[in-house]
Design a protein that fits this description.
Elements lengths: L1 E3 L11 H13 L6 E9 L2 E11 L13 E13 L2 E9 L1 H7 L17
Parallel strand pairs: 1-5
Antiparallel strand pairs: 2-3, 3-4, 4-5
């Protein structure tokens, strides 16, 4: 079972290896670079992954047209294992920084406001 709040509500992925394959193929349709495993932390029945991907934004994502600009996107995934297989996955993907890199979100949107001069 995939828990990913960045996905549209009601989105359902196939479970098991087919679901992971579909998720990887879908993601690869947006970005042309390899996914790098930055950190792997085992913790009992859980494994935490921190990953990054740098590549060109090549595929339409909803209403956002591809820009062919190089972007870096990051994410954290927590997998719970049961009987040696992934039973559940929680995933957070850094969409705001990626959308800022391609110009969908203004770079200064989250900049601190300077106090007004007296």
């Amino acid at each position: 079972m995939l828990h990913d709040r960045s996905m549209p509500q009601g989105t359902e992925w196939a479970s098991g290896p087919d679901g992971y394959r579909l998720m990887a193929e879908t993601w690869h349709g947006f970005f042309d670079g390899p996914v790098e495993l930055d950190q792997l932390i085992p913790a009992g029945e859980f494994v935490v992954l921190r990953w990054s991907q740098t590549g060109k934004f090549v595929g339409e994502m909803g209403s956002i047209e591809p820009t062919d600009e190089e972007v870096t996107i990051t994410g954290i995934e927590i997998n719970r294992f049961e009987d040696g297989k992934i039973a559940e996955t929680w995933q957070e993907t850094g969409m705001i920084p990626m959308l800022t890199q391609i110009g969908v979100i203004p770079e200064d949107l989250f900049a601190p406001k300077m106090p007004a001069e007296n």
